[in-house]
Amino acid sequence: KDLARTGVRGTPRVGFPIAELVEALERLTGAASEQTAVLAGVGRLGSALLGYPGFRRQGLRIVAAFDAAPERCNLVLAGTPVFPASTITEKVMRLGVPLGILTVPAERAQRVAEQMVAGGVRAIWNFTPARLEVPEEILVQREDLAVSLAVLLHRIQERSV
Question: Residue 139, by phi and psi: left (phi above 0), alpha (psi -120 to 50) or beta?
Fold first, then answer.
């Protein structure tokens, strides 16, 4: 029954046409269309995200990265060029990228988010502890690693009682 949403018809005791089913699932999950993103903050977390192969499988391609440290700029990390943070707005605008990924220090997060929004991003994936103030139409997904850890530790403690 779950596969009924795909619109692909299966045959009892035979199954589904695999190629057609895969294509329909890709359409439903968005995997068939590639989305582009930029990433700001090429420290440890940012570098790890740049190298994560799972994004490609989900149809996400990080096309540019930015950093404030001059020694990290004008490099190519995991196939992604790294530019000076001062060029975020201009590059985002030129690339027409809808998604910005933030892995900068918390004290820089608001300013970088504003630069991304000025460039035209419509969504921000925020890996910083900062609570961003952005226009209402901008989507923000906050990934607070400390909160996730606290939840996990609480669940461990519940199981050992």
Answer: beta
